[in-house]
Amino acid sequence: MSSLQQPQTPVLLLKEGTTETKKEDAQKNNITAAKLIAQILKSSLGPRGLDKMLVDPMGDVTITNDGATILKEIEVQHPAAKMMVEVTKSVDNEVGDGTTSVAVFAGALLEKAENLINKKVHATVIVDGYKRALGKAVRILKDMATEIDPKDKGVLVKVAKTSMASKIVSGNSVILADLAVDAILKILEEQGSIDSDARTDNLTSSSKSKYRVDLDNIKIEKKAGASINDTRLIQGIVLDKEIVHGGMPKKMENARIALLNCALEVKKPEFDTRLNINTPQQMQKFIDEENNLLKSMVDKISSAGANVALCQKGIDDTAQHYLARAGILGVRRIKESDMSKLAKATGARMITNVNELNTEDLGYAQVVEEHQVETDKWVFIEGCKNPKALSILLRGGSKKVVDEAERSVHDALMTIKDVIEYPYVIPGGGATEAVISQQIREWSNSLEGRAQLAAEQFADSIEIIPIVLAENAGMDPIDTQAQLRSKITSNEPRYGIDVLNKKIADMTSKNVYDPLAVKEHILNGATEVACMILRIDNIIAGSKSKDMPSGLGAGGGHAMPGGYGGGGYGADM
Ligand code: ADP
Ligand code: MG
């Protein structure tokens, strides 16, 4: 390089206005932001965790304890904090629960890493130690998990209840857990053979069981105005639509259902057409012709033996009249997603041309009836034979309660799905984390050099779960930690935090069980994001354009006020 001359003028590598944060500053900055995210979520971990009230710029209020929902609602700007948000989202998508835990654990990993960085341990060494500890932790976890029968309702209910224990609806978890399990057992699909050695391999969760659950086949309809205990499982589908014509029957028993994907209307021509009518007779003839066309459609439905017509498109006034005269109950403009659920629930075949309708295309339901649900009229298609899709009609005292109940039921459904598709469970309440922590601590002694320090910090970090559960229950964290450590004499996860009685107890006797899939995702997700943040030693940020409103530069923001296009606006309750 000696042949190159020293440049006379400073080299400008970055655009004017670009800021660069280097080395320790960058690390500290990122760690602090990520820790803040963990700090926000900490107090909502576990059954004794508190809830957050989130107000969006439109004034819509959400009350929740769900980690992913909290982070979705607060618009985070800092890039490292965004990485934390991403990891909770991905855990939420994959397994549906454990979102608070993943952020809290990642926060702890970063906090401990910061201590090491202060002692001049290099980030790469920490990352290496953490990764090795993760590998060990996952092996310990899998060895401890208990295999279950995926159709064992008892275990599934325990898992569902554990996932709902931390929600506002926990008081009703007995009913809701039961209902969620019933719903899933109905829509379960069997698939290829089971992998007997699922524990030790690295397959994805879904390939490990012979059952598959598609949650799209469970329709959740919610309505405020009654108690959560009035929530019902419907062996069929609830449509938030009315019966289309006043003259139609409001109730049809032994319903034979035609599912129509086409409109019961006379097709309008696609281009401008002119019709020259000179006499009233011609006019009459034209109208008669249209009527005959509609009547023949209705005749076709009627002669196929249907007494209920469920239509994805429109039903013309005249067609309504003929349907009513034929004693057929009709509903129109049903959502496409509901149509496919209806097909699965009733066994009907979707028809695109009325003239092709045959008796064997019809579906069956014991009863189709319009019910008044608060101020709305909804059509219930109930009592289907062996339905492969069904509905949960969620009730609650207010909109906020039903919204949170929906999120909780969704979490419960996801955890049930998790254990059915990957049939292993493990005690919750911090019991598992306490054993992992102890075993990693022991194992870390076998490591050489500074990686040992990092592995030790990993062991301390995972202990954050029982500690925070205890803290949130109002127990003394230091005393509890000492007591818990003294209780763990074997590698069997038993003793955890009985948050309701504020003491250390055997979690298996309290029936607190989490899916193995959730615990695995927490370990992997948290370590991954912590390592990713630790490996960053340089932040280069472009300058904001001058005419951009503040807060919109770093991505994520858009010109519309938050909450406008999203969920909060336009819900009909
Ligand atoms: P996350 O979003 O991580 O699922 P939660 O607030 O749902 O956070 O809390 C989950 C934690 O609470 C899990 O570790 C679970 O084992 C624990 N837990 C659930 N029910 C109980 C209980 N009855 N006693 C003690 N711990 C419980
Ligand atoms: Mg949870």
Helix and strand layout, with pairings?
Layout: E1 19-22, H1 23-42, E2 52-55, E3 61-64, H2 67-73, H3 79-94, H4 99-118, H5 123-144, E4 146-147, H6 153-164, H7 173-187, E5 189-190, E6 211-212, E7 218-224, E8 232-234, E9 237-239, E10 251-260, H8 280-303, E11 308-311, H9 317-325, E12 329-331, H10 336-346, E13 350-351, E14 363-373, E15 376-382, E16 390-396, H11 399-421, E17 424-427, H12 431-444, H13 451-462, H14 464-472, H15 477-487, E18 495-498, E19 503-506, E20 513-515, H16 516-534, E21 538-541
The structure holds adenosine-5'-diphosphate and magnesium ion (MG).
For the biggest sheet, the summary is:
7 strands, mixed
- What is the correct CATH architecture of the largest domain? Orthogonal Bundle
Average pLDDT: 85
Residue share in helix: 40-55%
When the domains are counted, the total is 3
Can you count the beta strands?
Answer: 21
Our Rg estimate from Cα atoms comes to 30 Å
Structural class, please?
alpha+beta
Classified by CATH, the class of the largest domain is Mainly Alpha
How would you describe the shape?
Answer: elongated
Q: Are any ligands bound, and if so which?
A: adenosine-5'-diphosphate, magnesium ion
CATH superfamily of the largest domain: GroEL-like equatorial domain
Low-confidence stretches: 193-207, 548-573
The CATH topology of the largest domain, please? GROEL, domain 1
